[in-house]
Amino acid sequence: MQKRSDLSDVQKGMIIGFRAKGGSISETVNFVNCSRAAVVKVYRAWQYGTIQNQRHGTCGAPRAIDGRGERRLRRCVRANRRATAEQLTAQMNQGATKSVSSTTVQRTLLRMGLRSRHLVNAPTLTAVHRQDNARCHTARSVCAWFEEHQDEFTVLPLASKLTGFKPNRESVGPPRSGCSRHGSSTA
């Protein structure tokens, strides 16, 4: 049987996976062929986060806002939910030895999951767009399109065995020549 120090990363991963899946200590010992103490120590070390991938996060420059800075930024956001990135940057740089830019603060907020909750979706406000987005104008253009493509649609007869449905003359009558809204014709 192998001790904890003799285990490879693959065997440690097998121990962690087997225990996380719900296997008992004895089953894990038989599966990996190592000591009980090794199974307990490896799994406990993984639970409390002391086993990590050695190559994780070692590439690139160190972050301008580290874990402690993120906690400070989170406190600033909680204090003022409506603060802009520039205001948060000023608060972060107020007593800091190393200043950060507003772009860094914005990126950190997004990485932390702190973003606006509502989507800002406003139509453009030029005269042409205002006219196109007007309710009567869009209704008029839809009716005009249906009148142009009227021959492409087929009106099917109603099924005679529908229960509880009493067709009136307007629903089964011939199509009207103009599109009307509130009784006024727009054609």
- What is the rounded distance between the termini? 91 Å
Form type: flat
The overall average pLDDT, rounded, is: 77
DSSP helix fraction: 40-55%
Widest sheet: strand ordering: 1-2
Class derived from helix and strand content: mainly alpha
How large is the radius of gyration?
A: 34 Å
Q: Secondary-structure element sequence?
A: HHHHHHHHHEE
Low-pLDDT residue spans: 183-187
Strand content: under 5%
Largest sheet: 2 strands, antiparallel
- Put simply, the count of helices is 9
In total, the number of strands is: 2
Concise overview:
This protein is mainly alpha-helical and 187 residues long. 49% of the residues lie in helices and 2% in strands. It has 9 helices and 2 strands, in the order αααααααααββ.
Task: List descriptors.
187 residues, mainly alpha, disordered C terminus, DNA binding, Homeodomain-like_sf
Structural commentary:
By secondary structure, the protein is an all-alpha fold. It is 49% helix and 2% strand. The protein has a two-stranded antiparallel sheet with strand order 1-2. A hairpin with a 2-residue loop joins strand 1 and strand 2 (184-185). It is flat, with a radius of gyration of 34 Å. Mean pLDDT is 77; it is low at 183-187. Residues 164-187 are annotated as: Disordered. GO terms for molecular function: DNA binding. Pfam families: HTH_Tnp_Tc3_2.
